[in-house]
Amino acid sequence: MHAIHVHHGLQDAADAFEQHCRDVCPAIGVPLQVRRVHARNAPGESPEDAARIARYAALARGARDAGLQAVLLGQHADDRSRPCCWP
């Protein structure tokens, strides 16, 4: 098992979210990748869509780079992102 944290930089707490992952993962013996993405929306595209597209692309690259065969997503309780899967 590996953890992949995607840092969008879209929230004031983004750096704190990353640091939390950097603190917790080594403590529980889980390798961590942090992927920073630029999730700025294009005209006519919602910020949520731009962030989702960037996040899923980063997760797919991270999984491939680590030789992982599956990705499980963990979101906070009020996240409204659409689910996504990779074969």
State the order of secondary-structure elements, H for helix, E for strand. Answer: EHEH
Low-confidence stretches: none
> Widest sheet: strand order?
1-2
- Number of extended strands: 2
Termini separation comes to 17 Å
Strand content: 5-15%
Describe the overall structure:
This protein has 87 residues and is of the alpha+beta class. It has one domain. The chain is 40% helix and 11% strand. A two-stranded parallel ribbon has the order 1-2. The protein is globular. The two termini are 17 Å apart. The relative contact order is 0.19.
How would you concisely characterize the structure shown here?
The protein has helices at 14-28, 47-66; strands at residues 3-7, 32-36. With 87 residues, it is of the alpha+beta class.
Brief descriptors of the model:
2 strands, two-stranded parallel sheet, alpha+beta, 87 residues
SSE order and pairing:
Elements (H helix, E strand, L loop, with lengths): L2 E5 L6 H15 L3 E5 L10 H20 L21
Parallel strand pairs: 1-2
